[in-house]
Structure formats: structure tokens, C-alpha cells
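Quick illustration, no need to memorize.
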Amino acid sequence: MAAELIDGKKLAAETRAQIAAGVAALKAEKGVTPGLAVILVGDNPASVSYVTAKEKACVEAGMNSHEIRLSADVAEADLLAEIARLNADPAIHGILVQLPLPKGFGEHKVIDAIAPEKDVDGFTPVNVGKMLIGEDCFLPCTPHGIVKLIEVTGMDLAGKHAVVIGRSNIVGKPVAVLLARRNVNATVTLCHTGTPDVGAFTRQADVVVVAAGHPNTLTGDMLKPGAVVIDVGVNRVPDATKPKGYRLCGDADFASCSAVASAITPVPGGVGPMTITMLLWNTLEAARRAAK
């Protein structure tokens, strides 16, 4: 029996409807409209496309979107000054610096400059530290969305074995932390390029989150029957049958994995829609906190 598709678009639409209702309520009760500022340095096509999608999502949710575009050769000091200005602006509740930054910028230094109470990406050391020790904080968007996607399958993760493939600071490490927190309570194994036999771990897993950045990192013979697969990867592979000469695929081999798994996210349409959704979620929460 083929795996059930975990519909990220549907969950994102339902969650965004809740967010829009929350925005409307905040406006009516407190006269506050959540404001998200996105800083884009340079003109990386993928980043431009992503920022445009964020701006559209903000408007649809009833939020104020502020886009700041800076040239790739802007001085780092000027970028930091822009962040400081936004930190001090009461109309801005969330600040996001689009990554990756062009060469020459200290990425950690730039992220560290964002006020933790406006860090709706959940990337500053303060929020990462709070996440690690289980304190209330803004959770990183993609990992938070992944947990929501697992929840809609109906699986109770308490006591289950979750394997995460990939140890990036954006997805792998934080999703491993979130799955291990007491409110989720999974047993977590983190695999990476130093793991000699990833399949030895994934064949024991009830849930596999694959975020390695390479097609076919996970195949059906590496899964326990009935496992849930969350595929975070987005890869371009050559395909002469497609108008653009390529197609998008994830890090999991969809055909073989879907024949063994009980549920799996498609690519596209799985994890992707939830990332911007959880960004809006955090921005609304930041505005609520500021309005208290």
C-alpha cells in the first residue's frame, strides 16, 4: 500500500487562516498590526523569490510587510545600523535577514545583532539557547513546521524513535532538539556525514527527517515498514522531459520510500509551505508580546 501524502499546502493554509484571525483580533483589541521587516542583501534569484513569497504571505495574513533591499557591496557596518534601526522601531515586531549573505559578511555577527524579542527566525544565540534548555522562545521556522507535519499524521511521538539525517544549524540540529524536548518526548538519533551506516539507524526509526541536501540520501530499503518520512530537501536534477530541463526532488527517493512508509511529505508541497507559515506564526506572537 502506498504511503499517505502529508499535505504541507493544506496544513499551511489551515494554519495561516488561524494566524489571519489572530492578526484581526490583535488589531481590534489592541490597535496593533504585526510588522515584519525582511532585509535582502544582494540579488540572489532564490533569495529574491523567497522574499517575494514572504511579502505576499504577510499581506494575505493582514500584516505589514517591510522589505529593505541593500546592494551586495553595502558595508557590514551599514547593514548592522539598519538592523539597529529596526530593533528600535516599535512598528516592527519581527526582523529577518535573508540568508545566505554575500561573501564578506560575518553571518553570525549579523544575526546576533537582531534583538531576541524580534528574532522571528529563531536564529539568535539567545533563542537557540532557550530552545535547547526548554524555555519559551521563538522556534526556528522549518523545524517547528516539521513537528507540526508529523503531528497531523496522528502519530504520538512520545517514546518513538526519530532519526534526523543532517546536522545543519537551520534544520538538522534544531529539529533534533525539538523532537527530544519533553513536550514531544521522542528518542532521537542524529546522523550525518560522519555516520558510517545511516541505514542501520533509519531501519529502526518510526520517523525519519532527511535534511542532507542530496538526492537519494534515503531509499526504501533503509526504512522500517510503516515509518513516517519528512523530506526537507529541495534539489534540482536534470530532466530533458521538463520545459526548464530539470525537475525538483527531495533527499528521499520518493518511489521506493513511499512503497514502505506509512506517510511521506512530497517535494514540492510538503515542508516548504510550512516554513513561511511558522514565520508568520512567530511574527504574530512577537506582536502579541509587544502589545501586552
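The CA atoms of residues 79 and 110 lie 8 Å apart.
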